[in-house]
Design brief:
Layout: H1 2-32, H2 37-49, H3 53-61, H4 73-83, H5 97-110, E1 118-123, H6 126-138, E2 143-148, H7 155-169, E3 173-179, H8 188-196, E4 200-204, H9 212-215, E5 224-227, E6 231-235, H10 242-245, E7 252-254, E8 257-262, H11 264-278, E9 300-306, H12 314-325, E10 329-333, E11 337-338, H13 341-352, E12 356-362, H14 368-375, H15 378-383, E13 387-391, E14 394-396, E15 400-403, E16 407-411, E17 415-416, H16 417-422, E18 425-431, H17 433-447, E19 450-452, H18 455-459, H19 463-474
Parallel strand pairs: 2-3, 3-4, 7-14, 10-12, 11-17, 12-13
Antiparallel strand pairs: 1-8, 2-5, 5-6, 6-8, 9-18, 10-15, 13-19, 15-16, 16-18
Helix pairs in contact: 1-2, 2-3, 4-11, 5-12, 6-7, 12-13, 14-19
């Protein structure tokens, strides 16, 4: 009996020693990566104070891909040579100095050229967007490229899949890229049937063993479509019924999406080609057409992409530069508000400098955890003069930032750590007064459906809620 207890004691000591060694090793790795101190501290807290759970979460969600080359330089140069969009010499254009600075920064970050011959149509509801989208798909003559975080086999997804099958049968080149985790609830036969119909259909970062821990945290959150190399779609809407019918609780789903024609479509094709080549599939995409010809006085637009493998936090840096350039107004819509420390400081500095800063978030988003984490920033926002509005009719999924009179950015990027650091994202950067006015009108129309947060009333919310918000605030950088 004593020998058995002795063996059990030694076994427990060995297991405990192994566990603590693993935790210490993980902490050392976190420190050596020289991450954002807040993010590093969040992981250290999780590793030390959440036995078993903390290390497991770190293995799946904590490691960094920053600087990892998913494409060889040779392949990237090859694709860039064939499909890189045409450049415009911005020195010959009458641009605001602040816009010129953002344009140069975006080009330095991801080789994104500034384009001038573009037309943009704005959609704020799924019904009108998908109606036009299906019409464009049915009219496709040569090619269809689709890349979505979520592509489900529900009513709208099945209808689009049938259109794609018909076009493939007609000889149209159809390529579909979907995120494996985002589309996980769709049955595998849904994509298999598309593949059997002649559609090149592939998941991004398929999550299975033994790559589970290496792939689970890195998601392709982009929503891009290109039809015949001439018409592009980009924004916040995936392919699923919720974007048309709402989240299923009688509430509406408010989103923003763009239909674009012009030279910027070349940038969408190039972005798709890079991601497709990363899947180690045939990198062929349709030949670029002079889509912008005939469009006069069009919008100035760039495509900004970012992801966990980039050397820099592309989207966060560009957002920071845009916020810092604001003179009068900063209007933000986002489903989740979990800003990096530098972005939050920039917003507070702008508000304290008497810039009109407004943040609109959903009163009841689709994640209770992220709701509490977002709400944890509200008090500091209000104290610094940032106005906060809670959208009440339903889920606000729109991702928009409007700066002053002629700059708008919108796409797939949420104003949170995950979008800035862990996801593959894409946003349009639009430099145009007319579109800015349209987006401002839409924003202020949405404000009519919001509840403005009052600081004194906000301080009186239940103590239990404040405790929960503070707890989630501690781990906000790793959510």
């Amino acid at each position: 009996m004593e020998d058995s207890l002795h063996i059990d004691t030694w076994l427990a000591a060995i297991i405990a020693g192994f566990y603590f060694t693993m935790v210490i090793a993980a902490v050392v790795v976190v420190l050596r990566e020289n991450r954002n101190p807040i993010r590093a501290l969040s992981w250290i807290i999780a590793l030390v104070f959440l036995p078993v759970i903390g290390p497991v979460f770190y293995i799946f969600f904590g490691r960094s891909l920053r600087g990892l080359h998913l494409l060889t330089r040779h392949n990237k140069r090859k694709i860039m040579h064939k499909h890189s969009p045409r450049r415009v010499n911005i020195n010959n254009l009458n641009l605001h100095p602040d816009h010129r600075s953002i344009i140069k920064l975006s080009h330095s970050l991801c080789h994104s050229p500034f384009t001038v011959n573009n037309e943009i149509e704005i959609f704020t509801d799924g019904e009108s967007k998908f109606s036009k989208f299906k019409e464009d798909l049915r009219n496709a003559k040569s090619s269809i490229l689709l890349q979505y975080y979520i592509f489900l086999d529900d009513e709208i997804g099945s209808e689009i899949a049938e259109i794609l099958k018909e076009k493939a049968h007609e000889g149209v080149l159809v390529k579909v890229m979907y995120d494996h985790v985002g589309s996980f609830s769709a049955k595998s036969r849904f994509f298999r049937q598309m593949h059997e119909a002649g559609i090149a259909t592939h998941p991004f970062f398929r999550v299975n063993f033994p790559q589970l821990a290496n792939r689970l945290n890195w998601r392709n959150h982009r929503k891009i479509a290109v039809i015949d190399g001439e018409i592009g779609y980009i924004g916040g809407m995936n392919i699923a019924d919720r974007y048309v019918k709402g989240p299923g609780n009688g509430k509406l789903w408010r989103d923003t999406h763009f239909r674009i024609k012009g030279d910027i479509v070349e940038s969408l094709i190039y972005s798709f080609a890079i991601d497709w080549n990363f899947l180690k599939k045939d990198p062929y995409v349709p030949e670029v057409k002079p889509a912008g010809n005939g469009i006069e006085n069009g919008c100035g637009v760039q495509l900004l992409t970012g992801g966990p493998t980039e050397r820099w936090n592309n989207l966060a840096l560009c957002f920071l530069r845009a916020i810092s350039s604001a003179k009068r107004t900063i209007l933000i819509q986002t489903p989740y508000f979990l800003p990096t420390d530098s972005l939050f400081n920039a917003l507070q500095a702008a508000a304290l400098a008497k810039v009109d800063v407004r943040i609109m978030i959903p009163d009841h988003p689709d994640s209770r955890l992220l709701r509490y984490a977002s709400f944890s920033y509200v008090t500091q926002c209000l104290k610094s003069g940032i106005k906060v509005y809670l959208y009440e009719p339903g889920m606000l999924h729109s991702k928009v930032m409007i700066i002053d009179d002629a700059f708008v950015t919108s796409g797939s990027t949420n104003f949170d750590f995950r979008s800035f650091e862990n996801n593959f994202e894409s946003n349009l950067l639009i430099y145009d007064e007319k579109l800015n006015r349209q987006m401002r009108d839409i924003y202020f129309d949405d404000l009519k459906r919001c509840r403005k947060v009052n600081l004194e009333k906000w301080k009186k919310r239940p103590i239990f809620q404040r405790i929960i918000e503070s707890m989630f605030r501690l781990v906000a950088p790793i959510l």
